[in-house]
């Protein structure tokens, strides 16, 4: 629905921030505490934004506060609106501090830890006036931000051809099984599909490379895995493995970036499971000298 001319005043950052805080916290009182406002002020911001847009964004039901269908549809745009405003303020602050450039990168956490961090360190003495802002994301949201110019450089393992974006492969990693050092499997040269499916498994959410691989292995074996837990964060999953509750199938770089004492990463026997990292750029973006040096450094860390 188009916004009528009478409601086409500029969106208020405060109103959008209040709506997103309520969504994030699940309550008006918690959102007010987060923002340092009174609850009536947050409620007023939400109502004012709903009135301006001409549709309800939030609703209450037996389970608490939820997004309406209209609110859910607008949520990504509202988040981008607020992120864009904060990016401007960050850049202004950097100018006031004498810092000329904030370079924004979207990357999977493991790639950022293992590859972007050392390259940035090597460049640091030549670019003391640059700040690196890393968003640890690898999904469609990252591609939208790159296309919009909110991200300067993206690293992705899930890229699909997209208008306006270019992709350059950088490196690959395979699959490994993370096990407790006390587990007899830790002494294996490799773990095969049958053994993995027959062993209790800590699973990561649908849409992750780890889950995609586990599903493919289960289909090959013809049997569902024995899942003992499903977690979102790598460190949580590894802690469960460390306690001897199961094993987990992950990319090798993920294991290298987050391997805890008491854990062993054993190669997975099927080397056809491969993840490809690549660089995603807006085809109209002209890299700065720092970005070119960063890109060259990442190219140099390929397989």
TrEMBL record:
Gene3D superfamilies: Periplasmic binding protein-like II (3.40.190.10), Winged helix-like DNA-binding domain superfamily/Winged helix DNA-binding domain (1.10.10.10). Residues 11-68 form the HTH lysR-type domain. One of its GO terms (cellular component) is protein-DNA complex. It comes from the Bacteria. One of its GO terms (molecular function) is DNA binding. Keywords: DNA-binding, Transcription, Transcription regulation. SUPFAM superfamilies: Periplasmic binding protein-like II, Winged helix' DNA-binding domain. It holds the Pfam family HTH_1. PANTHER family: HTH-TYPE TRANSCRIPTIONAL REGULATOR CYNR, TRANSCRIPTIONAL DUAL REGULATOR HCAR-RELATED. Belongs to the LysR transcriptional regulatory family. This is LysR family transcriptional regulator. It comes from Pacificispira spongiicola.
């Amino acid at each position: 629905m188009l916004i009528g001319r009478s409601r086409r005043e500029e969106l208020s950052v405060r109103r959008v921030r209040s709506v997103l805080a309520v969504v994030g916290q699940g309550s008006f009182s918690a959102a007010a505490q987060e923002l340092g406002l009174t609850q009536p002020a947050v409620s007023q911001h939400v109502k004012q934004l709903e009135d301006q847009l001409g549709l309800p964004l939030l609703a209450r039901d037996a389970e608490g506060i939820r997004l309406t269908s209209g609110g859910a549809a607008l949520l990504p745009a509202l988040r981008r609106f607020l992120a864009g405003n904060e990016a401007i303020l960050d850049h202004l602050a950097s100018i006031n501090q004498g810092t000329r450039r904030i370079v924004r990168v979207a990357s999977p956490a493991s790639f950022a830890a293992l590859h972007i961090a050392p390259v940035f360190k090597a460049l640091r003495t030549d670019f003391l006036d640059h700040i690196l802002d890393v968003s640890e994301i690898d999904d469609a949201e990252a591609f939208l931000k790159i296309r919009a110019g909110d991200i300067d450089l993206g690293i992705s393992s899930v890229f699909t051809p997209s208008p306006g974006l270019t992709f350059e492969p950088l490196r690959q990693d395979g699959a490994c099984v993370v096990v407790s050092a006390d587990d007899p499997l830790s002494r294996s040269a490799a773990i095969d599909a049958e053994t993995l499916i027959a062993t209790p498994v800590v699973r990561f959410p649908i849409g992750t490379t780890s889950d995609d691989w586990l599903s493919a292995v289960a289909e090959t074996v013809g049997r569902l895995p024995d899942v003992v837990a499903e977690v979102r964060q790598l460190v949580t999953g590894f802690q469960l493995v460390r306690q001897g509750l199961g094993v987990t199938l992950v990319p090798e770089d993920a294991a290298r970036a987050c391997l805890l004492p008491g854990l062993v990463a054993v190669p997975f026997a099927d080397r056809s499971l491969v993840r490809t990292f690549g660089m995603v750029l807006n085809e109209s973006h002209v890299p700065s000298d720092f970005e070119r040096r960063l890109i060259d450094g990442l190219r140099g860390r390929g397989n």
